[in-house]
Amino acid sequence: MPANSSRIRVLVVDDSPVARALLVHVLESDPQLVIAGVAEDGHAALEFVRQHRPDVVLMDIHMPRLDGFEATRRIMETNPVPIVICSGTTDPRELAVTFRLLEAGAVACVEKPVGPERADFAERVAHLLETVRLMSEVKVVRRWPRMAPAAQVTAPGTPGTPSVRRPPIPIRIVGIGASTGGPPVLQTILSGLSRDFPTTITIVQHIAQGFLAGLVEWLAQTTGLPVHIAAHGVQARPGHVYLAPDDFHLGVAGGERLVLSRAQPESGLRPAVSFLFRSLAENYGAQAVGVLLTGMGRDGAAELKLMKDQGATTLAQDRESSVVHGMPGEAIKLGAASYVLPAERIADALAALANLKHREGDSRS
Known about the structure:
single chain, Rossmann fold, seven-stranded parallel β-sheet, alpha/beta, 18% strand
């Protein structure tokens, strides 16, 4: 055991012997990882976690006796450990079920690296290994929503909601950037907004290719807001949510017209949060709000500062409620955040800002 003491111990849960064997082979290719055990269903996973407390659980969804959703929920209620959902489906309806596991407490979803002959096999393997390593660093994983400290500023006369300064003019658009751990935070924020939210919301969520349609369907089902994959040239509508499509940058031109671009990746990413935030800074200035959520790296941090410098109100997620505090943490270091808030307070802040449009009128030309 001392030889493996610094390695990350992974439990593989999958009812398919072939899939289990492939996942074990893939994980063992990484010298930082070691297989703690395998389980063929949720019941076996529950018992293994209770007895051996692995560092990470790689969980399938559809299994006999106890499926991945129920197993995840029970693990997070009894012996919480980081759980990464490993799915091979591309059906949006099935993927919407996958994202329900994030509600139950899973911290990430990855594509199952099936078919070694496929062109994207190596890319899937690399993403899976990186995600497992990263999620092992989540020291305390609670069932969502996390109860982050509410010590940040509160609005006069409204206990528990963030206090925000009134911007000089009503806002026209909200831009949100997120990466690892982002989907459940997006769900928390969007479900906290009223159905008549008066402002367009644009989102860049770093996510494995093929998962976006499921994320959009899940968010639409669970938040009550109209959620779309953005299309080039579309006139964005108030109260609607638009997510950047796979492999396209998303920006917003004047008049709330969506712009998609195949420009070079930024920091290796397309879509990049930096592209969205830069377009909002250039085209909307103080009429925009930027929000940077949990995620690895620094995508969008400098551009959130650019938005702030142009008069925009900017929000960054706090460390306690972030799965990975890389992106918002970098923004905070740069002085890019007007406010640092826990995930469950961000919707209140957006509502307080956007409702100025109702009270003060629309300043659009």
